[in-house]
Amino acid sequence: MMLRNRLVTILLLIIISACGGNKEKKDQPKTGSKEVKTDSATIIKEDKDAENEKFLLTDDNAIEFFFEYAKKHKEHKVKVTTKYGSFIIDLFEETPYHRANFIYLTKKGYFNGTYFHRVVKNFIIQGGNSDEWKIANRRKEIGRYLLPPDTKKGFKHHRGTVSMPSSDVDNPHKLASPYEFFIVCSNPGAYHLDGDFTAFGRVIEGMEVVDKINALPTDVGEWPLENASMTIEIIE
Fold it and tell me: What pLDDT shows up at residue 31?
């Protein structure tokens, strides 16, 4: 009788131990499962992707970034399309930071859906802004930065010149607002701007479209009564 009881007790202990061991293994990831089958190359790639997604331009890194970007990206012609027609801008190689900035923003799709938000008849049209939150969000995702002026390359503000306005913040050095640009419409030019604003391109085709936009009626704040939106694409 005692022998039978011992045998039953031993058998029960073996069963309990086996059940407990199986439960512990079930809670662990399986070897070769999706959770543990991640090699170092995949981890590195994911880390780099995360860094790229979080990259923001700032006053501290913008010049270094565009210095390298200008060497790798040689594009210099863009097509600006509006409902009034299209025109082509040639960006100057001699102003590398401003050219690189414009190409970078174009590739990011920043300008698409922005407006020519300021029109001064027989003077300029200015674009690259909007009253929509999506444009403000794009700026936030790209970064907050200004560009130093580059006004000693000999470029003057002739009719058709593309230039970059200064930031409207406290800005004694006239640092450029990188998200906006203006085109000179006056004939023969607006030479009083020379030395204060960086001319970084010129309209080489479709100036009549620029003139159409320059003729739009505006409110007292020089904003066109009819929104003049644009898209920009690189063509060369």
Answer: 30
